[in-house]
Structures are given as C-alpha cells and as structure tokens.
Amino acid sequence: AKYLLDIIDPQPIVHLVQLEFWQWIADYYLCTLGEVMAAALPSALKLASETRIVLNLEHTFDRNLLNDKEFLILDALELRHELSISEITKILAQKSIFPLLKSLLDKKIIFISEEISEKYQPKKLSIITLNDFYEDRENLKQLFSVLERAPKQLDALLAYMKLKKEFGEVKKAAIIEEGGVNSAAIKALIDKDIFIQVDKVVSRFSSFDNSVASDFILSEDQNLAFQQIKESFIEKSTVLLHGITSSGKTQIYIRLIEEYLAKGNQVLYLLPEIALTGQMIDRLKIYFGNQIIVYHSRFNDNERAEIWQKVLTNEVKIVLGARSSVFLPFCDLGLIIVDEEHEASFKQYDPAPRYNARDIAIILGNMVKAKVLLGSATPALETYFNALSNKYGLVKLLTRYGGVKLPEIEVVSITEEKARKLNKENFSSVLLNQIDQTLAQKEQVILFQNRRGYVPVLICKTCGNTPKCINCDVSLTYHKASGKLHCHYCGYKEENITECPACGSRHIEYKGLGTEKVEDDLKVLLPDVKIARMDYDTTRNKNAHQIILNDFEDRKIDILVGTQMVAKGLDFDNITLIGIINADSMIQFPDFRAYERSFQMLSQVAGRAGRRNKQGKVIIQTYDVKHRVIKQIVANDYEGMYREEMIERKQFRYPPFYKIIQIDIKHKDLGKLLMIAEQFAKELKLHLGDLVLGPQSPLIGRVRNYYIQCIIIKIDWKNQSVVKIKNLLKEKVILFEADKLNKGAFVVVDVDPY
Ligand code: ADP
Ligand code: ZN
Ligand code: ZN
Prior knowledge:
Elements: H1 16-28, H2 33-40, E1 48-55, H3 68-80, E2 82-84, H4 85-92, H5 98-106, E3 110-117, E4 123-130, H6 137-147, H7 151-167, H8 172-179, H9 183-191, E5 195-202, H10 220-235, E6 238-243, H11 249-262, E7 266-270, H12 278-288, E8 292-295, H13 301-312, E9 318-321, E10 333-339, H14 357-368, E11 371-376, H15 381-388, E12 393-397, E13 408-413, H16 414-419, H17 429-440, E14 444-448, E15 457-460, E16 477-479, E17 484-486, E18 493-495, E19 508-511, H18 515-525, E20 531-534, H19 544-553, E21 559-562, E22 575-580, H20 584-587, H21 594-606, E23 617-622, H22 628-634, H23 638-651, E24 659-667, H24 670-688, E25 692-696, E26 702-703, E27 706-715, H25 722-738, E28 746-751
Parallel strand pairs: 6-11, 6-12, 7-9, 7-10, 8-9, 10-11, 13-23, 14-21, 14-22, 20-21, 22-23
Antiparallel strand pairs: 1-2, 1-3, 4-5, 15-19, 16-17, 17-18, 24-27, 24-28, 25-27, 26-27
Helix pairs in contact: 1-2, 7-8, 10-11, 21-22, 24-25
Bound molecules: adenosine-5'-diphosphate (ADP) and zinc ion (2 copies).
Adenosine-5'-diphosphate (ADP) binds next to helix 11.
C-alpha cells in the first residue's frame, strides 16, 4: 500500500483549460509540454522535491549489531526523526553514503520518503496583540509593576500601547522601532503569554489610489468604432481595430474593458515590451486602480507567484502584461486586448516554446470563449489578410482624436546634400534648420537611428580587413564610451584598434552609424543644446529608461537620440520634430519582412510628432528618395503597402500564403555541420520535395562558436496538411537527435519565425 504523504496544493494551480492550452502550444510549435510548462509557470510555483530518510518506528532491532557509522545516523534520526541526504552526508563527513543507507534499509531501520515542497514564500507581516487577560485594568496595572524589573520588556509594552491607540493594528517591526527594543524583548513577552503574535499574509504590491479618476467622452468617430467592435464581436471572436496613431485606441479599450468588468469578467491586456510602456500603465491605473495588475518577466519569482494566485482566484480583474502573461490562470476571461499587435516582441525566440503571444492569445480566446481585440496603426500583414478574408472582424478608425493633423513628412536626399556639400556629418541642412526652428520655439526633437554603438564597421583602407568577433561571424561595433569593440550577439569585447591587425596599416575607416555617434556629433554641432540618448546601452539599469523619459517630459532634454525605443510609449505634446537619420539600412535589411517592418517602424516613430494641438514634422533622410516604402510612408498609405507586399509574398512563397518552419542546425565543427545538415535536408526532401529549402548559412553563420545551417520548409497551407508535415518533421527531429552520428549537434525548430 502507498500512503498519501501530503497534499501539495489544496487547490489546483492551473485550470483544466490551461493544460489543454499548453498541449495546443506544444503541438503547434513542435516542442514538449514540459517546455511550455516551464515558460508558463513562475518558478516559485514549480515544486522542489527532496529525498528524506525517516526512522522506521515500527521495527525493533538489536542495536548491538550496528556499526559506528550506522549508530551515528540512528542517533541523529532519533533526535530529528528525519534527515535529508545532504544532512546525513554532513554528519558522516563522507561522500558515498549510499552503501550505508542500503544496509540500513535492508535491516528495516529506515525508510525513504519523498518530500515535495513549495518554493513560493508568501510575504508575511508579524502582528502583535495583547492577551485579553490584560484588558482588565487591575491585571494590566499588576503587569506594569512586574515588568519594572525588565525595563526593555516594559518599553516594548508601552510602545505597543501607543501604537495600538494610533493605528489599531500593531506590527512587530513597529514596536521594535517605536520602543527602541530588540526582538528578544518581544519574544520574552510572547513566551510569557503577554503578547500574542500572528503572521498575516500580505501583498507584495502596493495598492493604488484611483480617487483622481477623470472621465472622458468618446468622440463621434471613436464611438462609432466602439459600436462596430461590439457588433463585430457578436459574430467574430477576433476583431482587428486598425486605428492610426493618436486616434485614441486606448480610450476605446478602456470603454470596452469597463463593459467586461461590469459583466464580472477578467481582462487581459497584452503590450509589447512592458518596460517601455510606463505611461500606458499609468493611464490605465487612473481608470481601474487596484483592479489592474502588471505582469512581466522583470518581477521576481515570489511576486510572479503572488500575481498567479490572484488571477487564479479571480481576485485580480485586469492583467496588463508582456507576452508571458498569456499563460496566467484566468478563471473567467472575457476579453483579450493585444495592443500594437504587429510588434515582433510578442514572439519568443529562445528558449522553446517559440510562440507568438498574439497568435496564442487568439487560440486561448477561442478555448475559453473570450473575445480578442487586436489593435494597431500598422497591422501585421498576416493579421490584415485574416481581417480582409473575413476570419477576423475589421474596424477602422482613420482620424486622429481632436482633429490633430498627421505630421507633415519631408524626404531629404542624402546624395544631393552631399553632392552640394550642404550636410554636416550625418545631418542634412534641412534637418539642422528644422532643429533650430523647433528649439527656438521651445519645442522638442527626437532623432531616430536604428543602430546602437558608435560605428558598426571598421575597415582597413589598405587591405580591406574588418575586425570580427572571435565567437561569431559578425563585424564588431565600436563603442566610444567604453573605447572598445563590442559584439552585439555574444557580448564579446576587445580594445579598439589604431592599426590593422592584418597588415599594420594605420588607415582605418569607420563605416556606418550608431546612436552614440549621432549623439556625439550633434553635441559638437549644437554645444548649448541638452542632448540625451536612449538605447539598450543607456537603459540597462532597472529605472534608467523611466528617468530619461521623465527628464524629457520635464524638458530637461531638448533632443532625444535613440533606437526603436523612442518609438514606443511616448505621448508628449511638446515633441514637434522627428528626424530619421538614415532610413535605408532598415529598408535594405535582407529579410522578407523588411519593407513591412520599415513601414511599421517609421510610421510609429513619425506618430510621436505633434499630438493634440500642434501639427508635427518628420524628416526622413535617405539615399533612395524614390523607394516605394518611403513614398508609402509619406502618403501614410498602409493599404498601398499591403497590396504591393502581398504580390511579392505570394510570388516568393511567404506568409500569409505559405507557412514557414525554420530549422536551425548548430554545431561547433563546421565540416561536420555541413554534412549533417545536408543529410537532414535530404531526408526531409525525400518526403516533402521542393517544400524544403537549404541547407544554407543564415545572415550570421556563426554565433557563440556554433556554426549554423538553416533549412526552411514552406507549406502551402491551403492545399497541404500542415499537421501531417509537422508530425513528419517531429519524427525526423527525434530520429536525428537519437542518431550517434549527430552527436554535438543541436536542432532548433521555429514555427512561424519572425
Ligand atoms: P493611440 O493609442 O491610438 O495612438 P491614444 O489613445 O494614445 O491614441 O490617444 C492620443 C491622445 O489623445 C492621448 O493623449 C489621449 O489621452 C487623447 N484622447 C484620445 N481620445 C480621447 C477622448 N475621447 N477624450 C480625451 N482625450 C482623448
Ligand atoms: Zn589592413
Ligand atoms: Zn560574438
């Protein structure tokens, strides 16, 4: 017979539907259920198990037959009843204790049990109360006289009485502080039954006062969109709100959330990169106060576990979170909002599951019968395609709130500026003039450059050599602040060079442009202007990002230079000029989504200009003024971009017409890798034919000393069974991993890579 030793969780920590959801994810993204669970559960809720050695009290034996070491263990066990393996190892001061344990087991002196413990530690506050007995005046008087001989305890008692009068509830910590006593004095009073200590579980999150709530009225256009969304939800479970920047999508979300709360439902509000969206959190907290909780991976284990419990028990109604919050155990989810649904940061790259939170949110919505609202000014092509093909509802909001005009966009040819020698460094005369005018009106400027560091490439003018990372196949980026060359893939750093390591030449050319150089050059050109930079390098500390934004809002900064970080979560009225230093590197990036991404990114940055009462201005510097994406951005022509892109996607067999699965095979030995990858591709081609492309080297052919070969499967999902192909692939990967010839190789399968 086996006995139930312990009940780990009095209630399940997930609902049944979560398990179903996890299984769906594992099947779809071709990973294991364990990997999904690991991503979903806060680690404080994962159980730790430990082997315990317990004394067998039901068995009598002859002590004289025990040897010294066995006796030692028995002694310890009689004292403590049970011990862990590591405790026994310590007692005996020897490594191998298992033969000894086996002999004790055989003699039935001990048995082994498995203790499973929870790692979650609720936050507790010790509350002190006075024994009822001393409510009686006479008894209390007597107590005072008794305690005269113990002055510290008397101080503690006096402090308690003062605090009790003032606050009602008395914390142990408060007595220590107020009375100037240590905890020994309090413990003495507890031991004498004078004080009673109770540990109260409290929240790790401070409560939020929403008494400042101000109300608003939806504009006519907003209200129309709001009604259309609700109508659309009658038929469709997913609706796309295509609303241009500053159209007031958030206001519509707020009204919608209110309706679901009134029905008693929970709401999940997904945001990309939560660290960048402090302003959004504040805006929502004003309306929903303590009903809202924020969830993301920067919280520690115990904090995340606490949120988990609160969502599980329906104590929390609204979760505002980054992608992992889609895994929280909602019990009564009515609405999911995916804001900025086109954002790449909803996709998880590493580790598995390599999921897209937007896509699995839609699945979850279907499973629990919750409605899903996707919102974007520049929807992902896949999403827009689904909306146009009637899979999702589609609601448009194409006017800005308050009739604010979209910014005026001017395109400046870098070629021409350089030919006429008008530019200074990387700033065109047009941009510099506009900066002057903007600052003269006490307005602020954002300059966008989608690369950090100083310069990305150093080239020897004599021999053409470029310093590369020792671990990865990428050129090193020079960072002026550190004086070093950095690898942005593995973090490797080395001293900057003044002469070519290959030929010794001192003619080193700096090529390309990072935010650090933009900031640096600008400080030389505009010495009296307050310039700051916001990118990965300046925001590594927990609150650095918020400090920069606050300074910008308080106008302690005139010009903010940054990477795509400046495109997000900024809603300041005083920014009237946006400069895009160089649009080309983004547009020319070798990826089938480059045009779509550039359109999204540049529209989003441009959207920061001139909100509420002023029309803003955007200046785009480029070598390619006639490029179609540039034209589409200037015309704010999302539809045009969509149409042209879709033609190419179809022609070159990309999503949404084809489904892509990417298989990366990695190995430290290039020769072996090439052989293995070729073999694996051949095997796949045997079954799947020309759906399989590669193997080929990806853009970066080696990262952290692992060479990479990449195989792509393109599935015509309308005419082919995706499930069948996935099953086949799964089988082949398992066989691959089991094959001794492939030792040292890793396979990474990415479904719907981004
Ligand atoms: P979006 O998310 O579509 O870019 P926002 O929701 O940020 O737009 O709205 C832009 C600005 O207009 C915000 O400052 C917001 O407070 C304001 N706003 C939008 N709609 C309203 C409204 N109905 N009443 C008051 N202010 C509004
Ligand atoms: Zn050289
Ligand atoms: Zn590297």
